């Protein structure tokens, strides 16, 4: 097998993009390519619900042991697994539109419904460090964790630091106001190469 590009990593047999967004929600929307075209993605990394579960462990959203149990449970109904994947990808598109200021009333309402549903499923439980919010351990756990983080991002101060890569459309946090590209190793480097070629001409 040939070496993967520098922005990709093989995780439990699944090729995934390395996190560059500095926030799990932004890395979630960056799991497809070519947002700038607004059409079909040239590359889709969440090709199955299992891939999404593996990704959620890769970015630290859900512990690996929990993901293993969820993968075992998720395979019971192909129709249900397909529905969960569709819901996940729809939420990703809705979030991208909300975060980039392109959301219609419909897409905003759809994203809000999922965030509100996740919030309603939380339970306050005791822990060694004091009371904490927990979600049920079921196949919707990773998506609902993302939804809660999305709600915090959209309503918090970090929202104004979300930037869009001018090359690929990926999102990232830029709290210091110094980042232009999602990654200097990919989009930044390609821009430098194009600029050098233009000067040479």
UniProtKB/TrEMBL annotation:
Gene3D superfamilies: Jann2411-like domain
InterPro entries tied to this protein: ABATE (IPR010852), ABATE_dom_sf (IPR023286), Znf_CGNR (IPR021005)
UniProt superkingdom: Bacteria
Domain Zinc finger CGNR: 162-199
Pfam families, sorted: ABATE (PF07336), zf-CGNR (PF11706)
Annotated protein name in UniProt: Zinc finger CGNR domain-containing protein
Taxonomic lineage: Bacteria, Bacillati, Actinomycetota, Actinomycetes, Propionibacteriales
